[in-house]
Every structure is written in structure tokens, then in C-alpha cells.
Design goal:
408 residues, disordered C terminus, binds guanosine-5'-diphosphate, binds magnesium ion
Length: 408
């Protein structure tokens, strides 16, 4: 039997409760936890209403407040690690994590992950279509880092390495709960670290596709993503030099499906408000750092104050800059954080203006193309010895899979 965990912070209590109820209603689930960032009003409301839900569904629904576990900013990582530690202690067979702000969560998420776990995969990741201007940290920071650091493995091919929707079996839970790398990562870097750590466990990893996409809170100006950007970048930097999954690691995925039409039209952030961010003042320390950037990029950045001239930051130049960041970025240093944020904004605006405007399908093909290119540049484009497993086939009749899986 399985446990479902929702970390939550500032979502409306009704949304968290609706998701708890959806999870509790699933026959595969025997317990549900919500892990609050802190005690307070929302936590209190969720706790009060969860008692009734628990009675309705005849299953325990627990509301926990996250513990201080890690070494970095206390945030989502502490929430997930709180649940991982307790789940390991209790020997939970399978643990699902879902973001609490999903507005279209339904039983197909849980069922899809359970099916893959029934077939022997120790780790299941959900993936889903996203707006072409969403996932800008994934596309510009995390996937390029995985391509650069682990070319030729399945890591760069993962659609959503920052996704918070995963299933872990007991072996994975125990291994993560015992990992210093994971426990220390208390901030937004947790998703990167979980993705990496689960990829090298040798337990098999499957990507389950959610056709309808994930509907959740989107953004105003990209300033809202500043902490997430610098923390995800730092987490990516921390993977340099570590061993990747083996070339014949057991990996499978559902084929992608066409994105829903409304998602193709969604603009995930406020472009005009974001352009203004490039006008932020430069400190003398940041100016000095910018002078270390390759070529004349520092000078161009200093001139670029309104986002209208960001096109110079194309995919090739970004590979260079991204490498510079992976080698040198220093979390907690205001000058580095400001410079990394400015560089990323410039890249995101360049892509938004020059590619995203060409329509969803072209934009997504372009983004995928950049990752393949980066992987090639890093020197590892050999085909994966992994199968494309069509889980569209009736799940209960799926044959057992022996490993390693040969390409079809
Ligand atoms: N327990 C806990 N949950 C958090 C914290 N920060 C974010 N979350 C949850 O993590 C999930 C993902 O956060 P969200 O802001 O939606 O990130 P995004 O989808 O990547 O933009 C949501 O369910 C948040 O409530 C935190 O400090 N503690
Ligand atoms: Mg969200």
C-alpha cells in the first residue's frame, strides 16, 4: 500500500484539501500526509478540515509541520526530507509526492505511477506538457546542466528534472533518507538533488506522462522565481564531478502526446514586468564579476537595461555562459546571485522574443534541440540503451520487463 505526501506553503486551504481528498479516495492509497512549511493559519485550517476527510475516507490523513533538517535556506527541501525521514522510519512501501497547488490532480496520476511501480520501477516521475514560456529554470539551467555533466545518460532526457511529482519505493526512500546530499538540501534545490540521486540508485526510473498537463499557479514577473533560480543553479553546480547513471541504466517512458490547445496559448509569466528587471542597479562587485564574463558580454549586459536588446543571448552563447556559471556561481553572494539572475533573464527574454513567439510546437522543438546540442557539445550523444515502453497498452497485462531493456 502507498502513502501520498503533499508539501504545502501558501496554497489556499481548500485547494490543499481537495488534493488530499483526491489522494485519500484512491484505493491504492492507505495514508495521506500534508507537510506544512510552518505552523499557522493555513496549516491550522488544513489540519481542522482533514479530520473530517479522514473519517469520510476511513484512512489516516496527517498534517505535519516540517522539521529543520538541512543546511541551506529552510524551504521545500526540509518539507520533503521531513516526510522522507518519517516514511523510511515507518518502512512505507511506496511514497508519492505531489505539489499541493495542482488544480487538475486526479486519480490518473496515482494510478499511472502505481502501474509503473507494479512493473518493477523503483522510481516514477510524472511529466506533462507545459506552456512554452513555463519551466524556464528547467530549460535554461537544469536540463543544460544535466546535458553538460551527464551526456549520453538518461538524465538530460528527463522532461521535468525539477518536477515535484514522483513515486519512490521503499528502497529509494531509505536510500534518500540516509543521504547527506539529500538531507542537506533544504531549499528549492531539493528537486534537482532527488532527480540526480534517484537516477544513480539502479532501481529503474520511469516517466509517466500526464496528457492534460499540470495546471498550477503561474507567475507574474520572473522576480518571483529569483530564489528558485539561484538555488536550482547551486544544486546543479553541486552535481559537477559526480558519477552519472550507467549507460544501460533501466529507464522507460510513456510517449509524449499532443499538448492541450489552451496550454499552447498560455503565457506563463509577465513579459513586460520582467523586462523592467534588467534595469536593476549594478553594484560595484557585480560589475567586477561581469568583467570576467567571456568576450564583451559584460559590457552588453550593462547596456541592456530594458530587455529589448536581449537577442544576443542565443543558445550557443548561453552554453558558454551556463558553463561559466556552473563553474563559478556562489550561492549567498549577492553579486553572484544578481549576475546569475540577470544573465538568466536575458536568456529567457531572448528565447521568448525570438522563438516562443513562433508558436508552441516550433518553440518546444527548438528547446529540445538546444538540449541535444548541448549534450553533443559536452561529448556524449550516443543513443541510450533504454526502451521506449508504451504504457498506453493495458496496464494489467503488461509483461514483466527484464533488464537491461533493449531498444525496440
Ligand atoms: N512544506 C513546504 N512546502 C513548500 C515550501 N515551499 C514551497 N512548497 C510547496 O512546494 C510545491 C511547489 O511549489 P510551487 O511554488 O508551486 O513551485 P513551482 O510549481 O515550481 O512554481 C507547492 O506545493 C508548495 O506549496 C516550503 O518551504 N515548505
Ligand atoms: Mg506550482
Amino acid at each position: 500500500m502507498s502513502l501520498v505526501v503533499f508539501p504545502f506553503k501558501s496554497e489556499p486551504a481548500e485547494l490543499v484539501l481537495a488534493n488530499l481528498a483526491m489522494a485519500a479516495a484512491n484505493p491504492a492509497i492507505d495514508e495521506v500526509w500534508a507537510v506544512a512549511s510552518e505552523a499557522g493559519k493555513v496549516e491550522h485550517e488544513v489540519r481542522a478540515a482533514s479530520r473530517e476527510l479522514s473519517i469520510t475516507h476511513g484512512k489516516p490523513i496527517e498534517v505535519l509541520v516540517q522539521q529543520r533538517i538541512g543546511k541551506l535556506r529552510p524551504a521545500k527541501g526540509d518539507g520533503m526530507n521531513t516526510a522522507l525521514a518519517l516514511a523510511a522510519e515507518q518502512g512505507r512501501d511506496r511514497v508519492h509526492f505531489y505539489d499541493a497547488d495542482i488544480t487538475n490532480f486526479d486519480s490518473s496520476w496515482i494510478d499511472g505511477a502505481e502501474r509503473a511501480a507494479d512493473r518493477g520501477f523503483g522510481v516514477v516521475r510524472h511529466r506533462f506538457p507545459r506552456a512554452s514560456t513555463d519551466a524556464m529554470i528547467t530549460w535554461m539551467v537544469t536540463r543544460p546542466a544535466l546535458a553538460r555533466l551527464f551526456p549520453g545518460t538518461f538524465l538530460p532526457r528527463l522532461d521535468q528534472p525539477l518536477g515535484g511529482e514522483i513515486l519512490l519505493d521503499l528502497r529509494a526512500v531509505e536510500s534518500l533518507a540516509g543521504s547527506e546530499l539529500v538531507r542537506n538540501r533544504s531549499d528549492w534545490g531539493i528537486d534537482t538533488i532527488l532527480t540526480y540521486s534517484t537516477s544513480v540508485m539502479g532501481l529503474g526510473l520511469y516517466e509517466h506522462h500526464v496528457r492534460d498537463g499540470k495546471r498550477h499557479a503561474l507567475y507574474g514577473s520572473l522576480d518571483e522565481l529569483r530564489d528558485m533560480l539561484v538555488e536550482c543553479l547551486d544544486a546543479a553546480c553541486s552535481l559537477a564531478g559526480r558519477p552519472g547513471p550507467s549507460a544501460d541504466a533501466w529507464y522507460g517512458n510513456d510517449p509524449p502526446s499532443p499538448a492541450p490547445e489552451d496550454l499552447k496559448r498560455t503565457v506563463a509569466y509577465d513579459i513586460d514586468a520582467t523586462k523592467h528587471l534588467l534595469g536593476a542597479d549594478w553594484s560595484p562587485e557585480e560589475t567586477r564579476l561581469a568583467e570576467r564574463l567571456p568576450g564583451d558580454i559584460g559590457a552588453r549586459l550593462l547596456e541592456s537595461t530594458n530587455g529589448s536588446d536581449s537577442s544576443f543571448m542565443d543558445a550557443d552563447l548561453w552554453y558558454l555562459i551556463h558553463g561559466f556559471l556552473i563553474e563559478n556561481f556562489t550561492l549567498g553572494d549577492p553579486a553572484w546571485e544578481s549576475l546569475a539572475f540577470r544573465l538568466w533573464l536575458t536568456r529567457v527574454l531572448a528565447y521568448t522574443t525570438d522563438q516562443a513567439s513562433a508558436g508552441f510546437d516550433a518553440a518546444m522543438a527548438y528547446l529540445e534541440g538546444t538540449i541535444s546540442e548541448y549534450e553533443k557539445m559536452a561529448g556524449g550523444s550516443q543513443p541510450l540503451r533504454a526502451a521506449r515502453i508504451l504504457s498506453a497498452a493495458p496496464a494489467s497485462d503488461d509483461p514483466p520487463i527484464s533488464r537491461p531493456v533493449e531498444p525496440p
